[in-house]
């Protein structure tokens, strides 16, 4: 029988080194918020495939919808011969996206593709080249999205040159000394130093930075950006690849913004484990590129569209948005309680069920503790809980557990986390 060690050795020999692996574990099978490895060990999954499993592994409705789709057709290429599930996913996205204006959508496959397409559309609409992204932001691994990404190690190292006309302003992060005013001033500095605002097509911002460390964009920051956007005719793009599909207590996190974004990039949990992404937003903006300008061979796969429709149905049937809010409250309460006993936990934060803790040496916010973060994550895995770290300083532990997980499972996972901290002493 296969062992994790034997498979890891084969992986090391056969798979590119550049493809990372957070845990030396190989899965055999999975269900909802648990999985079992090839050696038969059970794990609680607080990583959710990096925010892809808001409805859990093998949600019965998703699997049923996919099986039904497999009996009909699996691929025609939507640009050749179209199919209803694609249209229906767009209709659902249009209905759910915030903003008091007519909306349209298109579907793609990955988060990076959704972001790239949002930028292409913004440039086509504004006829301007410039894009302003933010420090600590993560937007993907393709060349343009790497250019937008505001975190060098490990994503950008060795991969330049990156595309021009991309500028980085400061993302507000009061915990690390960047106020909302600092952040908005840094945009104005870009207008002075780098590019005139009349050449900027869009701001792209995550409502909660994902890979960057689960820092929430404050509402005043979003309003400030919108004021600048209105003044200069710049579009506001929300990268909701990680925040979307119900993670933050609303379908899109930007529903909680004081102003609606012009475009939203969505992916990950949208199709419950199948590759599907999309751009949704203002119809006049989305329609700027001419016919043939957008698309992709696999974009909007019918199998993934069937899965997405089942995910959206599951959210309605199982009231998963309410669950996301309640789960977030439960997690924050438990982690704040943990923080009173564990000095290293210097911050507990989140939006809905997108929750994280940040670790510092003795809780001193000037001394981020990446080493402890790595050790706690590894210890938790040894004890049967799979976690992910993130953050500019590598000192954040994030929770992306399926919203379909029971409170009992959450509590079991949280107890393992507390035990893992205790084992560090
Ligand atoms: N944007 C954000 C905010 C993300 O979190 C990610 C993935 N972590 C991406 C874009 C890229 O998505 P993908 O890996 O599907 O290309």
UniProtKB/TrEMBL annotation:
Transferase among keywords: yes
SUPFAM superfamilies: PLP-dependent transferases
Family annotation (Gene3D superfamilies): Aspartate Aminotransferase, domain 1, Type I PLP-dependent aspartate aminotransferase-like (Major domain)
Keywords, alphabetical: Aminotransferase, Pyridoxal phosphate, Transferase
Gene Ontology MF annotations: (S)-3-amino-2-methylpropionate transaminase activity; 4-aminobutyrate:2-oxoglutarate transaminase activity
InterPro entries per the UniProt record, alphabetical: 4NH2But_aminotransferase_bac, Aminotrans_3, Aminotrans_3_PPA_site, Class-III_PLP-dep_AT, PyrdxlP-dep_Trfase, PyrdxlP-dep_Trfase_major, PyrdxlP-dep_Trfase_small
Cofactor(s) the protein requires to work: pyridoxal 5'-phosphate
Enzyme Commission designation: 2.6.1.19, 2.6.1.22
Top-rank taxon, per record: Bacteria
Keyword Lipoprotein listed: no
NCBIfam families noted in UniProt: GABAtrnsam
Assigned protein family: Belongs to the class-III pyridoxal-phosphate-dependent aminotransferase family.
Protein's UniProt name: 4-aminobutyrate aminotransferase/(S)-3-amino-2-methylpropionate transaminase
């Amino acid at each position: 029988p296969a062992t994790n060690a034997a498979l890891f050795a084969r992986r090391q020999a056969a798979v590119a080194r550049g493809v990372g692996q957070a845990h030396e574990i190989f899965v055999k099978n999975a269900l909802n918020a648990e999985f079992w490895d090839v050696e038969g060990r059970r794990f609680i999954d607080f990583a959710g495939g990096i925010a892809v499993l808001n409805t859990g592994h093998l949600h019965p409705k998703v699997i049923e919808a996919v099986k039904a789709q497999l009996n009909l057709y699996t691929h025609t290429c939507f640009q050749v011969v179209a199919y209803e599930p694609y249209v229906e996913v767009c209709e659902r996205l249009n209905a759910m996206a915030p903003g008091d204006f007519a909306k349209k959508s298109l579907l793609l496959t990955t988060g990076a593709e959704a972001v790239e397409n949002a930028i292409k559309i913004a440039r086509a609409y504004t006829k301007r080249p410039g894009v302003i992204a933010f420090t600590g932001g993560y937007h993907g691994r393709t060349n343009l999205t790497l250019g937008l990404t505001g975190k060098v190690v490990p994503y950008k190292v060795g991969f330049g040159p990156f595309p021009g006309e991309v500028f980085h302003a400061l993302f507000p992060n009061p915990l690390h000394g960047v106020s909302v005013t600092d952040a908005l001033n840094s945009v104005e500095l870009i207008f002075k130093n780098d590019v005139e605002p009349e050449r900027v097509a869009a701001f792209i911002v995550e409502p909660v930075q994902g890979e960057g460390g689960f820092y929430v964009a404050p509402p005043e920051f979003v309003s400030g950006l919108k004021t600048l956007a209105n003044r200069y005719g710049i579009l506001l793009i929300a990268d909701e690849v990680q925040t979307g599909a119900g993670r933050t207590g609303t379908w899109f996190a930007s529903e909680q913004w004081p102003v609606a974004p012009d475009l939203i990039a969505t992916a990950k949990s949208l199709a419950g484990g199948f590759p599907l992404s999309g751009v949704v937003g203002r119809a006049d903006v989305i329609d700027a590129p001419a016919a043939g300008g957008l698309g992709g061979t696999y974009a909007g796969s019918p199998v993934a569209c069937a899965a997405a429709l089942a995910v959206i149905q599951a959210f309605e049937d199982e009231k998963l948005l309410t669950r996301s809010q309640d789960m977030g409250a439960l997690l924050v309460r438990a982690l704040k309680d943990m923080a009173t006993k564990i000095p290293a936990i210097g911050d507990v934060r989140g939006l809905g069920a997108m929750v994280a803790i940040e670790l510092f040496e003795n809780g001193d916010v000037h001394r981020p503790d990446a080493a402890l973060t790595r050790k706690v994550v590894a210890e938790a895995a040894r004890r049967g809980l799979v976690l992910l770290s993130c953050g500019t300083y590598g000192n954040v532990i994030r929770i992306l557990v399926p919203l379909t997980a029971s409170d009992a499972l959450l509590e079991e996972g949280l107890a393992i986390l507390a035990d893992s901290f205790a084992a560090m002493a």
